[in-house]
Write a structure and sequence with these properties.
By secondary structure, the protein is α/β, with parallel strands linked by helices. Helices cover 34% and strands 19% of the residues. The strands form four sheets. Strands 7, 8, 9, 10, 11, 14, 15, 16 and 18 form a nine-stranded mixed β-sheet that branches. A six-stranded mixed β-sheet has the order 1-6-5-2-4-3. Helix 6 packs parallel to helix 9 and helix 8 runs antiparallel to helix 10. It is elongated and about 80 Å long. It starts with a strand and ends in a 17-residue tail after the last helix. The chain binds ligand BES, manganese (II) ion (MN) and zinc ion. Ligand BES binds next to helix 11.
């Protein structure tokens, strides 16, 4: 997908389709109004026909005659009163998916009239174009539904061209990172092994100019990662403990650690899962995929901050050497863990990853994991859960994440949950029963972060979706890449912090 900018008169732009926005039950505005006027009011006519009510993403397709564009697609931004800039990503995403399926190759996109941050507007438009065109047909020889759109032209007349340019550069990097995370997650576990994940991370390191260190089993053992390795021992696939490093502010001692669960397949181990929907457990490395993908964009956008990405990658299999319920393992910080249920493996690999983040000198930690089914019961697919040990750090995360459109709902930490995780014969056990399953899991992780400000994101309900939407294919969503990057940007340069997470100086194209 190529994203271009044109400051020409919209009515003269040659494209296979021209996309214009409207708010529900409102007259056309700005570029949309101008175009409508040149077309004898056919767009306004179509909108008053009653075919659409103007719910977000609803659209009407109109064919034109004698124009440099064959079609006009009017797409609703929903109610004006609830408009948020991130909805522009859904606006473009819907247009690309609808038109792309109809073999439309080149799309010109009009923006709503300028208001607020123009670069943020443009960033969301580019993000939506790239994420909307995500290709899920990689394994099909003759795909029926590959999206045809390869070119987007953003109409910038009436906008500040440099703002639009830098916004688009940011949105393209972000959208590509989201799609990278989705591709890694979508790839089935026979291909996306821990070894392959490490190779993908190495490719990212090479192209984005990051440092990389991959600890194999022997090195992980020397580091004392008994908890991580206890999950890996049931599989014939060698585990990989992946570390990506970006030093954007060498003069600072601050180090942000992004930690992601990298279970490339979760059978449950000896506490094996039922067959139904087990295939979805190829997505159990979504947190790790998001870390690798976010690091790739960090390397490209070059914010002034030090970031380390940590991904413990392994399968959770019931092989002959697998951990058995009742086994006791020792994590890097010396804490012993009684493994009650081998299906609560995410917390076991994260325990050592969080210890390692501290060993590397992390001063702030965020982890993301498809950690608990209980999270899906609590919040469904509408929001991720978030638990922190430091409300100031939590607030910084929420403030950065909110404008991205990704949702995070804070859940509490109480000492009670830690009590629930105490074992009779070891320091901890790895399950605390059914009550508050998401929060006992978080309380378990908390035992490995020490006093470093930390926030845990349970993305079990948001990392992948069973249904497509107008703007997004079904399957992996790329959550939490957008929040990771917005957080990095907000810390990277407070003075130039951008509402959409971009930083002014770094984004010139
Ligand atoms: N990967 C699963 C959690 C999960 C479930 C993610 C459904 C996405 C969709 C995790 O490893 C797991 O199995 N958790 C167990 C923990 C339990 C044994 C304490 C769960 O939630 O059932
Ligand atoms: Mn599991
Ligand atoms: Zn799992």
């Amino acid at each position: 997908m190529q994203v271009y900018i044109s400051a020409d008169e919209p009515i003269g732009v040659s494209a296979d389709a021209l996309v214009v926005p409207f708010f529900s039950e409102s007259p056309l505005e700005g570029v949309a109004k101008e175009i409508d006027a040149s077309l004898d009011g056919i767009i306004a006519d179509a909108l008053t026909s009653g075919d659409v009510r103007g719910k977000l993403g609803e659209h009407v397709l109109i064919y034109t005659k004698g124009q440099p564009f064959r079609r006009v697609l009017a797409v609703s931004l929903g109610d004006r009163s609830t408009f948020q800039p991130y909805l522009l990503a859904r606006y473009t995403g819907s247009a690309v998916r609808y038109l792309g399926r109809r073999n439309v190759e080149k799309i010109a996109i009009a923006l709503p009239p300028p208001s607020g941050d123009q670069a943020a507007f443009a960033s969301f438009v580019a993000e939506g174009a790239i994420t909307g065109s995500f290709d899920t047909t990689l394994y099909q020889e003759h795909p029926e539904r590959r999206l045809a759109t390869s070119e987007i032209v953003v109409l910038s007349k009436g906008f500040d061209a440099t703002e639009i340019e830098r916004g688009i550069a940011h949105g393209v990097a972000l959208g590509e990172a989201v799609n990278l995370a989705r591709r890694l997650a979508l790839t089935p576990a026979n291909d996306m092994t821990p070894t392959r994940m490490a190779e993908e991370a190495a490719k990212v390191a090479e192209t984005a100019g990051l440092g990389i260190d991959v600890l194999d089993e022997a090195r992980a053992a020397r580091e004392g990662m008994g908890s991580f390795l206890s999950v890996a021992q049931g599989s014939v696939q060698p585990p990989k403990f992946i570390v990506l490093r970006y030093d954007g502010d060498p003069s600072s001692k601050e180090l942000l650690a992004l930690v992601g669960k990298g279970i490339t397949f979760d059978t449950g181990g000896i506490s094996i899962k039922p067959a139904e929907k087990m295939e979805d457990m190829k997505y159990d490395m979504s947190g790790g995929a998001a870390v690798i993908a976010a690091m790739s964009a960090v390397g490209k956008l070059k914010p002034k901050i030090n970031v380390v990405g940590i991904v413990p990658a392994t399968e959770n299999m019931p092989g002959g050497k697998a951990t058995k319920p009742g086994d006791i393992v020792t994590a890097m910080n010396g804490k012993t863990i009684e493994v009650i249920n081998t299906d609560a493996e995410g917390r076991l690999i994260l325990a050592d990853a969080l210890c390692y983040a501290n060993k590397l000198g992390a001063t702030k930690i965020v982890d993301a994991a498809t950690l608990t089914g209980a999270c899906v019961i609590a919040l469904g697919h509408a929001s991720s859960a978030a638990v922190t040990n430091d409300d100031t750090w939590g607030a910084a995360f929420f403030a950065a994440a909110k404008p991205t459109g990704e949702r995070y709902w804070q859940m509490p930490y109480y000492e009670d949950y830690t009590q629930q995780m105490k074992s009779d014969i070891a320091d901890l056990k790895n399950t605390g029963g059914r009550p508050a399953g998401t929060l006992t899991a978080a309380a378990f992780l908390r035992e490995f972060v020490g006093s470093t400000p930390w926030i845990h994101l349970d993305i079990a309900g948001t990392a992948y979706l069973e249904n497509e939407s107008a703007w997004q294919a079904k399957g992996p969503t790329g959550v939490p890449v957008r929040a990771f990057l917005a957080l990095v940007a907000s810390l990277g340069d407070q003075s130039k912090a951008h509402p959409n997470g971009a930083r002014a100086a770094e984004l010139r194209v």
